[in-house]
């Protein structure tokens, strides 16, 4: 019996550590949601992410999401301005089934020009997003960005001004209706040659407008 106990202890020592258990859910109307608990991998934490999109006609929509995520999502904020503007805020916590603090969206404070100009366009399903106009970037949105989203609704492309944090958003992927949903962000001064990271905080809002 003692040998079996020793062997069991050795198995526990060499087995990979279990990650946190976090609630996974999405809501397009409220800043809270409930759902099933999932096992996170590695050093992931429990995160809450809220994404707001504002169309050119002023129509607003948002998505609130709880899931597992990298530590970089703790107190994360990012923004992109184009024909469809987006703002992302997120929080995290580090115990099983914990509820992260509610992330809050704040009005853009610095609206002064930063002397950066970027091409802007928004396209659904087409292979290209051809920019016919340029936009004067403001505040900390000092990068020209191209966001490409592929999901069950098809392809969406957005060009515009973005903050550095938007360009370096932590990598995320999501399985939606049995299909992998993922986005690619490209940032640079000449509208984008090199993909940087994957982002998928915009699922609900992109299918509505993005």
Question: What does this entry look like structurally?
Answer:
The chain has a single domain (19-208), classed as CD59. Strand 11 and strand 12 form a beta hairpin. The longest helix has 13 residues, at 2-14. The N and C termini lie far apart (61 Å). The protein is globular and about 50 Å long. It has helices spanning 2-14, 164-167, 203-208; strands spanning 21-27, 36-39, 45-55, 60-69, 76-81, 84-93, 113-124, 133-138, 143-151, 154-162, 174-176, 179-188, 195-198. Residues 1-16 and 190-210 have low confidence and may be disordered. Strands 1, 2, 3, 4, 5, 6, 7, 8, 9, 10, 11, 12 and 13 form a 13-stranded antiparallel β-sheet that branches. The chain has three helices and 13 strands. Helix content is 11%, strand content 48%. The chain is mainly β.
Task: Kindly list the characteristics that best describe this protein.
disordered N terminus, 210 residues, globular, 13-stranded antiparallel sheet, 11% helix
Question: What is the residue-mean pLDDT, rounded to a whole number?
Answer: 78
Uncertain parts:
1-16, 190-210
CATH level-four homologous superfamily name: CD59
Topology as a string of helices (H) and strands (E): HEEEEEEEEEEHEEEH
Largest beta-sheet details = 13 strands, antiparallel
What quaternary form is this? Answer: single chain
| Percentage of β-strand residues | over 45%
The end-to-end distance, rounded to whole angstroms, is: 61 Å
Count of alpha and pi helical runs: 3
- The backbone outline, from C-alpha atoms, is globular
* Fraction in helix: 10-25%
* Number of separate domains: 1
What is the highest CATH level, the class? Mainly Beta
The name of the CATH architecture is Ribbon
The Rg value, from CA coordinates, equals 20 Å
CATH topology: CD59
- Output the structural class: mainly beta
Number of strands: 13
